[in-house]
Amino acid sequence: MHIGLRNVKLSSFLLLFLLACNREEKLPDTVTFSEHIAPILFKECTYCHREGGTSHFELKTYRQAKGYATAMAFVTKEKMMPPWPADPHYTEFIGQRILSEKQIKLFKKWVTDGLQEGDKTKLPPLPQYPFGSMIGTPDVRLPIQPILLPANSSDHFVLVKVPFELPSETYVSTIEFVPGRNNVVHHVNGDLVRYDFNKKRNVFDGELSTNMVLDTTIKLAFDKLGLANDDGTYPALQKSTVNYLPGVTAQQYPEGIGSFHLPRKGAFLLNDIHYGFTKKEVLDSSYINLFFAKNPTTRPLQEFQLGTIGVSPVEPNMIMLPDVEKKVWSKYRVPKDISILTINPHMHLLGKSFKAYALKPDGDTIRLISIPRWDFNWQYFYTFKKMVKIPAGSTIVAEGVYDNTRKNLNNPFNPPQIITDQNGSMKATDEMFQFIISYLPYEPGDENRSLEK
Ligand code: HEC
């Protein structure tokens, strides 16, 4: 009887499912560029596939799209494009770029229907992408020392100092990194250098950039950049204040949340800018836009991280033996109620998958993120649509799987070698396991507060 009931349930589910699929399936008789493909490209793809975008080729016109039609059908089916490694069925975030099953089928059907252009009058207008800022007029623009990249080169990791001196101290709500016109910037992660009052006379001391050659230690690089206080001690770093990844607009929280005090003088330490492949020689002139907050913040953002140099260790350890797949984890018990806003999973080239969740004291699970196929190139800062409350006594669990075999096409070594976590080394060929969490101490109602601007 029990089984019978289940079967009834199952078959009605199946019916509903088939009905739902049927509705999804309704594709146009003939897929054309103007009517069906262009709207998807303009909404989900041209942000990166345009001049000044992060990709090497454009997808704005019929001719351009036609040339990539088969490739587009493939990368969309494989969910490689648009890049969004997090599983949207596990958790959803602001700004996620996900194609529907129907949109994916349209790409394929366009190819089998013969790549027709269709009625040009049905073409939607090409989106206009602003230059200089994606979010508005900044209060201050800080230029970054231009960096020269030789032709036919890739993977430059440059440490850059961006010193500033403002008329007065202030509060900043958003920091936007804007890549130079010829966008070759692969990603940026930067901190704010907070000097103690009167401990640093000249923040413009030292060099403005240094290339992270393989044997350079962080200490050497910092000395070169003149980061230390006048008495030789090191100033505090406010982590992850400047972030950039192609296709991602700068982090903006609603008024009153997340803004922070900016001293009259200090520096941003871009630690580092990673430059991707460039065919021609390029002089990159990127810059940083600062947007001031109207009011001093009432709820400054706080941050902690699990794993490498974090609040909880990596278990069992970060020794990756050659030809082995290995799972590691890190667990942290949250002492008080917190509200999570943004999370950032971090691994390097051996990363295979990543998952994080919180176990509540009552045994329930709060899902945070699942990345079934880790992609070193797309390490987003994921902001929840609404804050996620984690009650005191919960345990946050982050799990990562590493693939140190030859099957991993990103493995920096062939044959595979022992790879370890060099105490937080930034080198892409060392490994890391981190789960970075931006949060606020919980206040009632947080879980209903939208984080969308
Ligand atoms: C966030 C930026 C971004 C978005 C959004 C994006 N792409 Fe890409 N795409 C890239 C980058 C970077 C590459 C790597 C190749 C390069 O640098 O040009 C790439 C590669 C591709 C390739 C592989 C080309 C080849 O044969 O090597 C195709 C096809 C493609 N994208 C199609 C699309 C389509 C279709 C969409 C929208 C549905 C899309 N992309 C959205 C950045 C993006």
Sheet with the most strands: spatial strand order: 6-3-9-5-7
Mean pLDDT equals 90
End-to-end Cα distance, whole Å, is: 53 Å
Instruction: Report the principal-axis shape.
Output: globular
CATH first level of the largest domain: Mainly Beta
State the secondary-structure class: alpha+beta
Secondary structure: number of strands: 19
Q: What name does the CATH topology of the largest domain carry?
A: Jelly Rolls
Counted up, domains total: 3
Low-pLDDT ranges = 1-10
One letter per element, helices H and strands E, the order comes to HHHHHEEEEEEHEEEEEEEEEEEEE
Radius of gyration: 24 Å
Q: Which architecture name of the largest domain does CATH use? A: Sandwich
Percentage of residues in strands: 25-35%
Q: The biggest beta sheet, please?
A: 5 strands, antiparallel
Could you please describe the fold and organization of this structure?
The protein has 453 residues and is of the alpha+beta class. It has three domains: 24-122, no CATH class; 140-292, Jelly Rolls (Sandwich); 302-448, Jelly Rolls, CATH 2.60.120.230. It contains six helices and 19 strands. A hairpin with a 5-residue loop joins strand 15 and strand 16 (365-371). The chain starts with a helix and ends in a 12-residue tail after the last strand. The model is unreliable at 1-10 (pLDDT under 50). The structure holds heme C (HEC). Heme C binds at residues 40, 44-45, 47-49, 54-57, 68, 71-72, 75-76, 81-83, 97, 99, 246-247.
